[in-house]
């Protein structure tokens, strides 16, 4: 069992928030570390969420680190737009571009933290060539496209494998997990080596997002 060297970051996913109250929802997650921003194009994933204007609005309403997860085809076409709209970090899928190394380099050239991610059915080896060049690796623990899906248990082993690869490289990149994260599996993921947990439906629940963040913190304490 790996003992996390630093507190695990929490990144509530705005996909599950009440967009009529975006500013208040951002205030409610002020005790989290990052705001996770899920952009979907209806092509890479079978759902459309939102794009640059919502990120810009969130940026104006909050000083949280804006962690932008691009679930769009050929994300290289829009990196500058999201950077200009206030992204602090941008994560791209290996399946969405023919040029993952170039895309990661382009994010860093824009002065932003570069992330790489893979769908649950993609071999982890697809990310290995760029591991030394990224600031974040995201393990998708559901098939991307929707909030509120069930956590895929095999993801835990994928986190462990990536933890090993990052440690071998001496990389201090964040190891993030996204999809079906709840207080019931947060500790397990941290023990497997995750350093940042994304959570949508388990944070933005009926009792409010501040309580949701607190529940995850308690589970990790
Ligand atoms: C899924 C998105 C996730 C999603 C997570 O495609 O990338 O960030 O919002 O939602 P939950 O935590 O409800 O699985
Ligand atoms: Zn996401």
UniProtKB/TrEMBL annotation:
The active site is at residues 38, 178. One of its GO terms (molecular function) is metal ion binding. Substrate binds at residues 13, 69, 145-148, 178-180, 200-201. Pathway: Carbohydrate degradation. Keywords: Carbohydrate metabolism, Cobalt, Isomerase, Manganese, Metal-binding, Zinc. GO terms for cellular component: cytoplasm. It catalyses: D-ribulose 5-phosphate = D-xylulose 5-phosphate. Belongs to the ribulose-phosphate 3-epimerase family. It is an enzyme of class 5 (isomerase). GO terms for biological process: pentose catabolic process; pentose-phosphate shunt. The lineage of its organism: Bacteria, Thermotogati, Deinococcota, Deinococci, Deinococcales. This is Ribulose-phosphate 3-epimerase. Signal peptide: none annotated. A divalent metal cation binds at residues 36, 38, 69, 178. The keyword Isomerase applies. InterPro entries: Aldolase_TIM (IPR013785), Ribul_P_3_epim (IPR026019), Ribul_P_3_epim-like (IPR000056), RibuloseP-bd_barrel (IPR011060). The keyword Metal-binding applies. Its cofactor is Zn(2+); Mn(2+); Co(2+); a divalent metal cation. Binds 1 divalent metal cation per subunit. It comes from Deinococcus terrestris. Its EC number is 5.1.3.1. Catalyzes the reversible epimerization of D-ribulose 5-phosphate to D-xylulose 5-phosphate.
């Amino acid at each position: 069992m790996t003992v996390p060297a630093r507190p695990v970051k929490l990144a509530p996913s705005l996909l599950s928030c009440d967009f009529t109250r975006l500013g208040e929802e951002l205030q409610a997650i002020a005790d989290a570390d990052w705001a996770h921003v899920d952009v979907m194009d209806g092509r890479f994933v079978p759902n459309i969420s939102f794009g640059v204007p919502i990120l810009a609005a969130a940026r104006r309403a909050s000083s949280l680190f804006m962690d932008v997860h691009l679930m769009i085809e050929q994300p290289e076409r829009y990196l500058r737009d999201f950077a200009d709209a206030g992204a602090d970090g941008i994560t791209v899928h290996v399946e969405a571009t023919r040029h993952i190394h170039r895309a990661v380099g382009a994010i860093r050239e824009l002065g932003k933290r570069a992330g790489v991610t893979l769908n649950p059915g993609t071999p982890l080896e697809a990310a290995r060539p760029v591991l030394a060049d990224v600031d974040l690796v995201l393990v998708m623990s559901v098939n991307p496209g929707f909030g509120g899906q069930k956590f895929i248990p095999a993801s835990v082993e994928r986190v462990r494998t990536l933890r090993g690869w990052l440690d071998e490289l001496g990389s201090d990149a964040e190891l993030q997990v996204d999809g079906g994260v709840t207080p019931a599996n947060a500790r397990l993921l941290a023990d497997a080596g995750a350093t940042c947990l994304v959570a949508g439906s388990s944070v933005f629940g009926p009792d409010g997002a501040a309580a949701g963040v607190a529940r995850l913190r308690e589970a990790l304490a």
